[in-house]
Write a structure and sequence with these properties.
Keywords: Cell membrane, Membrane, Transmembrane, Transmembrane helix. There is one protein chain. It is elongated and about 90 Å long. 18% of the residues are buried. It is of the alpha+beta class. The protein has seven helices and nine strands; from the N terminus they run αβββββββαααβαααβ. α3 crosses α5 and α5 crosses α6.
Length: 245
């Protein structure tokens, strides 16, 4: 059980980590097992060089060899008998880092795309309504409604300009801004993609993909690879990262 001692010294396990002894049915905290921790006036303080300095002063220190323990489903549990891996929750984090920056989770990118899609739908709704009236023949005197006709085009163009400016200058769409995500070049973490890469290349690629559902599906599933970059990210040489708090 030396591996458990190492985990405690390195701060991967604390006295409050839950564990269960073989043959028992009750989960207890590690400090309640004298096999791991002994408290008494004759014991040296916890801050000695024998133990990690990451533990709080005055905490019990590791003493005698540990007894067998088994893994379970309780958070923080470990498998000392069959595995040398640290406990679940220490290294199994859903965070991918490249070059020291956090890559956006697929769920966050999907949510941002849904927000952007909703914004596009709302901006195009007046135009769709106007075209419906035109082709249905419900309105015959369009000259008297010229200002009303301009409004749907204005909303669509405004959304296009705002989204394009945000993506070129800040690397963010409205959805990515709400989710605190940012588009950056694959070799940088603090530069905006610019108008050509961020708007023309990425938008053109995505719109072309939408014309071919199979390609669009491949583009989507690329998001679940290790680097979490869609196909259009690779072609545009960009990536989507999580902004610092």
């Amino acid at each position: 059980m030396e591996q458990i001692k190492i985990w405690i010294r390195e701060g991967l396990l604390s006295p409050h980590t839950l564990a269960i002894k073989t043959g028992e049915t009750t989960w207890k905290k590690l400090y309640s097992y004298p096999e791991f921790f002994a408290i008494g006036p004759t014991q040296p303080p916890f801050s000695t060089t024998e133990l990690s300095s990451t533990h709080p002063p005055g905490a019990p220190y590791l003493s005698r060899p540990a007894m067998p323990f088994q893994a379970g489903t309780v958070p923080g549990a470990f498998n000392g008998a069959h595995s040398s891996r640290p406990p679940v929750g220490v290294t199994s984090l859903p965070i991918v880092q490249h070059d020291g920056v956090r890559i956006a989770l697929p769920a966050d990118r999907i949510m941002a795309a849904l927000v952007d899609g909703l914004m596009w739908m709302l901006s195009l709704l007046p135009l769709w309504f106007c075209l419906t009236l035109y082709f249905s023949g419900a309105v015959t005197n369009w000259a008297s409604l010229k200002w009303a006709v301009l409004f749907p085009f204005a909303t669509a163009i405004s959304c296009l300009v705002i989204q394009g400016w945000m993506q070129a200058a800040r690397g963010q769409s409205i959805g990515k801004s709400l989710l605190r995500l940012r588009i950056v070049p694959s070799t940088s973490d603090d530069e905006p993609p610019g108008f050509v890469t961020g708007v023309i290349v990425r938008w053109l690629l995505m719109w072309l993909f939408y014309l071919f559902p199979v390609v669009a599906l491949v583009d989507f599933f690329f998001l679940f690879r290790d680097d979490r970059r869609c196909l259009h990210d690779h072609l545009a040489d960009t990536r989507v990262i999580v902004m610092d708090e």
